[in-house]
Amino acid sequence: MPSLPTSSQRLTDRKRQAIINAAIDEFRTAGYETTSMDRIAARAGVSKRTVYNHFPSKEVLFAEILHHLWEAIAGGEELAYRADRPLRDQLLELIAQKFRLLNDEAFVSLARVAIAAGIHSPERALDMVARMSEREEGLTVWIRGAAAAGRLKTNDPVFASHQLQGLIKSFAFWPQITLAQPPLDIAAQKHVAESAVDMFLAYYAV
Fold first, then answer.
1. Residue 83, exposed/middle/buried by CB under 10 A (0-12, 13-18, 19+)?
2. Tally of structural domains, the chain
3. What pLDDT is stored for residue 22 in this prediction?
4. Which of 36, 56, 76 is a domain's end point?
5. pTM for the model
6. Residues 42 and 89 in one domain
7. For the chain, which ranges sit under pLDDT 70?
8. What Pfam families does the entry give (predicted)?
9. What is the largest CA-CA distance in the chain?
């Protein structure tokens, strides 16, 4: 039987969550460059040392926020390839999970912050893109599993994953990020998801 968290552990978890919440607010309102660990500590009601105990740098904290938003929206669920289900149904579930992230106001605003920060620092941009791409690994794993089972024909699951991600993002991410267009409604999401998945399977399905 797992041990119950101690009061000190619960306090540590509450402080960590307070830091994340404060950082989300700071990054969204002040931008990446202006936001400092001092401002985050003040908003969270903790010392700067406490912030650094949890997050060694602003870059790490920002990446953790993006991961935190993904987990909150997706419920921490990783959809694995299943041999007993149609490929189309499984892919549509994966895309629906992605739409929940792309339609989240906090994620979209923080993505704008990340892109703006990257324009001023290409090295930082590469690091942020790498960290954000970790959250897209689930689709790559799924494609790799389907290919290993002989149901998809590809020797490069990462490339295939990027292709499908690109089909979705061209309608449900970049217009919202660069042109401030509203998120897709349910009917538009369904159309984009189904057409993207059908195009993908038309090329890759065995």
1. exposed
2. 2
3. 93
4. 56
5. 0.69
6. no
7. 1-6, 69-78, 118-136
8. TetR_C_7, TetR_N
9. 57
In a domain, 1, yes or no: no
Residue 41's CB is within 10 A of a number of other CB atoms, namely 20
Residue 49 shares a structural domain with residue 83: no
* pLDDT recorded at residue 79: 82
Give the residue from 167, 158, 124 showing the smallest Cα distance to 140: 158
Decide if 75 is inside a domain.
yes
As a whole number of angstroms, the distance between CA 23 and CA 73 comes to: 18
- Residue 51 maps to which CATH number? 1.10.10.60
pLDDT at 105: 78
Residue 2 placed within a domain: no
Residue pointed to by tokens 């790799």: 144
DSSP class of residue 155? Answer: S
pLDDT score recorded for residue 33:
84
* Structure confidence at residue 134 (pLDDT): 55
Q: Is residue 13 part of a domain?
A: yes
Do 23 and 89 fall into the same domain?
no
Q: Are residues 82 and 25 in the same domain?
A: no
Question: Could you give the CA distance from residue 23 to residue 34 in angstroms, rounded to a whole number?
Answer: 12
Alpha helices in 31-173 (DSSP H): 37-44, 48-54, 58-74, 87-102, 105-120, 122-133, 137-148, 157-172
What is residue 55's predicted lDDT score, i.e. its pLDDT? 95
Give, in order, the Cα–Cα distances in Å from 104 to each of 13, 32, 55: 24, 19, 24
